[in-house]
Design brief:
alpha+beta
């Protein structure tokens, strides 16, 4: 088996692979896909596995920014992992994912995330369930009853506003100490903001992307940095309630709209789960944000057969964290010999995403010394979510 970077000459074969795995796509969808993926070819972010010169599998790395406790860092989003029907069950998926993990690390990413079609494959490679995309269904009428509390300047937006949207996301997620949400790069935002089927509005501290979905409405993205803007954008969606009966929207688990609704007795929420993998323990901890009030240290041993684990001394202070080798080595090798709590790389990835230590211990993802469990829970506490699917 040969695993190599894909080229423009491979795209017809990749489209055939996608059709065999996910079903037919329209000509317009195929062209939009080509336009989106072509830039990644020259960046070493699209890999293919070949058997005797025939494409057997492919996988793409998307370059995202992801926030953890309000601090942004680069994140490798794995998408389009596809294996030909006749090549499944022969280790091809595992082989290309190993290559993807190595490539993501080579790009300097310390964390990686994906939406799994199947859990066992990705769990075997160190990914673990971390958060979800929460899709809520609301009566349009309930949104119409949300009244703006002040004057909010709204205008239509388009591809030229991509840089402003990115700047807005950085300000908003930092202020909210968000964990999990991602931002596309500026070029991807320009493509998205040129979709003629979407309606797009920009405020000084928020934006809205929505479309009609049959007789109902679908919000693709709504981000607001203040209560006034949240009210203005949600009430704009609700203003179509004379026609639309329902609105579906991705929201944070504690999105303000859930408290702005006049009536809320039962939430109709669908969760699409995503998984996280820490690729570099030291860099991932250094790049993550932590509660400013947390001060202290703990030793953890991380077993990562693919990337090399080790024993690390974690220190938290002033909203930042560090992870340095606790055994006098370079952090490489297996579980290390520095004592403390012991975690698989999947277990550490789940801890990083805020999964409580009690849960990790009861599921076998964590063992050993429990003296610092409360500190770890407090430092890594999070309610991770994403508004975007990739």
């Amino acid at each position: 088996m040969e695993i190599r970077d894909l080229t423009p000459d491979d795209l017809d074969d990749v489209l055939d692979l996608r059709k065999r795995s996910f079903g037919p796509i329209s000509g317009a969808e195929a062209e939009r896909w080509r336009h989106t993926v072509t830039p990644t070819l020259g960046e070493g972010r699209y890999l293919g596995a070949f058997e005797g010169g025939r494409l057997a599998a492919s996988a793409r790395l998307r370059g995202f920014t992801q926030w953890w406790h309000g601090r942004p860092q680069p994140m490798a989003g794995v998408a389009g992992v596809t294996v030909n029907p006749e090549d499944r069950g022969h280790g091809v998926g595992t082989a290309i994912m190993r290559a993807v993990i190595d490539r993501a690390a080579a790009h300097g990413d310390a964390v990686s995330a994906l939406y799994p079609a199947t859990t066992p494959l990705y769990r075997s490679l160190g990914y673990e369930h971390a958060g979800a995309r929460h899709m809520i269904t609301l009566p349009a009428e309930s949104l119409r009853r949300i009244r703006p509390s002040g004057e909010v300047e709204l205008r239509r937006m388009g591809p030229g506003d991509a840089a402003e949207v990115l700047s807005l996301l950085h300000r908003t997620h930092a202020a909210a100490r968000s964990s999990g949400p991602v931002a596309w790069d500026e070029n991807a935002w320009r493509v998205w903001l040129s979709n003629e089927d979407d309606f797009l509005y920009l405020a000084p501290d928020g934006y809205l992307v929505y479309r009609w979905n049959g007789d109902d409405m679908h919000v693709e993205n709504l981000v607001a940095g203040s209560g006034e803007t949240a009210r203005a954008l949600w009430s704009m969606v609700g203003s179509s309630s004379s026609i639309a009966r329902k609105v579906t929207a991705p929201v944070a688990p504690d999105d303000p709209v859930l408290w702005l609704l006049g009536e809320r007795s039962t939430d109709h929420v669908t969760q699409v789960r995503w998984m996280l993998r820490v690729l570099d323990v030291a860099a991932a901890v250094e790049r993550r944000g932590f509660p400013a009030a947390v001060t202290g240290g703990a030793v953890v041993s991380v077993d990562d057969p693919l990337r090399g684990g080790g024993s690390y001394r974690l220190e938290f202070s002033g909203g930042s964290g560090t992870a340095v080798p606790a055994d006098g080595g370079g952090g490489g090798g297996g579980g290390g010999g520095g004592g403390g709590a012991a975690l698989s790389v999947g277990g550490f990835s789940a801890l990083y995403a805020g999964v409580p230590t009690a849960t990790l211990r009861r599921t076998g993802l964590m063992s050993g010394d429990d003296r610092h469990d409360e500190l770890l829970d407090t430092a890594f506490a999070a309610k991770p979510y994403m508004l975007d699917y990739f």
